[in-house]
Amino acid sequence: MQLNEAVSKRLAELLDKKNMTQYQLYKRSGVPKSTIGNIINCSYESVKLRIIHEICQGLEINIYDFFDSPLFREDNLEP
What we know:
The chain is mostly helical. 59% of the residues lie in helices and 0% in strands. Helix 2 (22-29) packs across helix 4. The radius of gyration is 12 Å and the shape is globular.
């Protein structure tokens, strides 16, 4: 899987876990709704770490928790 796909899946998981919509995340994080939607839809080849950090703030988690997932294991990611 590509890294952007792993980020997309992880964000979707966390939104579901927090019972939060993309709109609610936008309101809490300040990350534009279009950016959140593009991340979920894998429209970006890569996502800036700053954006992920802002998303984490909106989700009320730290960046470690975002990446603490089997999705980001090296053997799951394409080089």
